[in-house]
Design a protein that fits this description.
Order of helices and strands: EHHHEEEEEEEEEEEEEHE
Shape: elongated
Mean pLDDT: 75
Number of helices: 4
Strand content: 25-35%
Number of strands: 15
Structural class: alpha+beta
Largest sheet: 13 strands, antiparallel
Keywords: Membrane, Transmembrane, Transmembrane helix
Length: about 260
């Protein structure tokens, strides 16, 4: 069902670009500093020309920044590799775009945008530590979601007739299945502690779809055209909660709501 890919292929590219930029800056700075240490450009009194002194100071500053950036880049690269998904597919389907955006990282109000449908406001709760968390509701669609604190991942239940079910696997992996009750199902696999930037969804025909984080407070997804609008919005609420609170997802979740209002 899933094709296993290297973490290098699916990891975020930003940290790698930071390392590359730091390497280029260091590669330009070191020769300049080395040149200033030689006697070639010094006058009879051993003094460098003023312009060369300025370039040397700039190169030294650039080298310091490059070293610090390299240290930070290595840390970020290791984090990106740790978060990168390994279950992926080569080709994805093209369907309806659905977005979920909060006003900021800790906001409890936001909006969902579904292609060919009006925008809808979203309201969420906060957990005991002040972070945004389920329950959440979508205005106009009567979609609601709530999370229960249990010992292991459980099922989401979305009434009339959407359901989201979980099956625990080895090493903390959980296989999730969303059924919109109208003949369309989507499956994805998520480790309860993985804060990955993207999840791959598989439909009943084996076609790949995706949900990914496009900002610290926004998610986007590509879902099949035939997926029920209420199910599409529930999907983003569930995945947003999973990706935002990944390290706390050993608790179970349950959701309830109904389609309509589109």
């Amino acid at each position: 069902m899933w094709a296993r890919r290297s973490r290098l292929a699916t990891a975020r590219r930003g940290p790698f670009w930071l390392l590359l930029t730091a390497g280029v800056v260091a590669g330009l700075s070191v020769p300049m500093i080395h040149l200033a240490m030689t006697d070639r450009w010094r006058d009879a009194e051993g003094i460098l020309p003023e312009n060369l002194v300025r370039l040397t100071v700039l190169a030294a500053f650039g080298l310091i920044v490059a070293v610090l950036a390299t240290a930070a880049g290595v840390f970020l690269v290791l984090g990106a590799l740790g978060e990168a998904p390994t279950d992926d597919v080569e080709h994805y389907g093209g369907g309806r775009r659905v977005d979920l955006a909060w006003t900021d990282r800790y906001a409890t109000t936001g909006r969902t945008t579904l292609e060919d449908a009006p925008d809808a406001r979203v309201a969420a709760g906060r957990d005991t530590q002040g972070r945004r968390a389920l329950p959440a509701t979508v205005a106009g669609t009567r979609v609601a979601a709530a999370r229960e604190r249990l010992s292991a991942p459980a099922d989401y239940t979305v009434t009339d007739p959407v359901t989201v079910t979980a099956h625990e696997g080895p090493r903390g992996l959980v296989d999730w299945t969303l059924d919109d009750g109208r003949g369309t199902t989507l499956r994805w696999r998520h480790h309860v502690a993985d804060r990955v930037p993207r999840l791959t969804l598989i439909d009943a025909h084996g076609t790949g779809w995706w949900v990914r984080r496009i900002g610290r407070a926004a998610l986007a997804a590509e879902v099949p055209d035939e997926l029920d609008p209420a199910a599409a919005r529930v999907l983003l609420l569930v995945v947003d909660d999973q990706l935002t609170n990944a390290r706390h997802l050993r608790s179970a979740m349950a959701a309830s709501g109904a389609g309509g209002g589109d």
